[in-house]
Amino acid sequence: MSDGEDSEYRFERKYHIREVPTWEVEHWVRRCPALFYEVYAPRYINNIYLDSPDLVSYFENVDGMADRTKMRIRWYGPLFGTAARPVLEFKIKRGSVGTKVSHPLKPISIAPGLGVDSVRKVLDDSDLPESVRFHLDGLHPALINRYHRKYFLSADGRYRITIDDELEFFRVHRFDNRFLSRLELTDSTVMELKYSGDIADIDDRITNYFPFRVTRMSKYVTGIDGVEA
After folding, report:
1. Are 66 and 12 in contact (CB under 8 A)?
2. Total number of domains constituting the chain
3. Contacts of residue 69, Cβ cutoff 8 Å, sequence gap at least 6
4. What is the CATH classification number for the domain harbouring 216?
5. CA 226, CA 181: separation in Å to the nearest integer?
6. 104, 191, 212, 229: which sits with the fewest CB atoms below 10 Å from its CB?
7. What is the pLDDT of residues 105-162, one digit of tens each?
8. Among residues 176, 209, 218, which one has the least CA distance to residue 62?
9. Alpha-carbon gap, residue 70 to 128, rounded angstroms
10. Residue range(s) defining the domain that contains residue 221
């Protein structure tokens, strides 16, 4: 799967912030001594998480397994309608570092009636390596989530921060989904700090600056736990 890798492994630190307005979180980021600035236009991110019928990926996350891989279909912009340029993404976690491997997919229609067969057809029709198809065997859509993201980079280019809000989750059933099982987190902001260097060299002015507590928040686990099946 290395041909689709979009970065080296990066240290990741996540903060699930509740009851603090997103604008205040962003204010802290912009005032950080590392001089973070916005690098991309904000956008909506949508994901269909793929898992086994007995939710192996979910339980690996809940159990805190250090080495795990999460598979999802990702696209940007509107949630419903035709996603013209989706990608299949493998999110690989190795302890406190992670990376992503992605492969382009054929367009997919997100509309009432979506089910395992329509998702499987997109995967089957896309030009995916056999090694990737092997990892997809037996998986089905388990959850859709959506959020709004802003991107920040430190002045020295070594640190990245993303801020996510407007989090929504939809449980996905095997057949004929109507997207009625929905959860919206109106009081949550997820901030993530990413760094490509050695963990021992992380700037204390950044890690000790933020007043927020580091958490083990997984959007996938949050959605599965929070949306009625």
Report:
1. no
2. 1
3. 57, 90, 91, 92, 93, 135
4. 2.40.320.10
5. 10
6. 229
7. 999 999 999 999 999 999 999 999 999 999 999 999 999 999 999 999 999 999 999 9
8. 218
9. 17
10. 2-226
Residue type, 48: I
Q: Is the dihedral of CA 176, 178, 183, 184 positive or negative?
A: positive
Both tokens assigned to 143: 């959850």
Residue with tokens 């570092």: 97
φ and ψ of 51, to 5 deg: -150, 170
Name the residue type at position 13: R
| Closest residue by Cα to residue 227 from 183, 186, 168 | 183
Residues 64-75: tens digit of each pLDDT: 898 999 999 999
Rounded Cα distance between 222 and 229, Å, is 13
Using an 8 Å Cβ cutoff, are 96 and 12 in contact?
yes
Cβ-proximal residues to 130 (8 Å cutoff; 6+ apart), any chain: none
The CA distance from 183 to 171, in Å, is: 9
Cβ-based burial of 165 (10 A; exposed 0-12, middle 13-18, buried ≥19): buried
- DSSP label at residue 78: -
pLDDT of 19 strictly over 90: no
The SS3 assignment for 65 reads coil
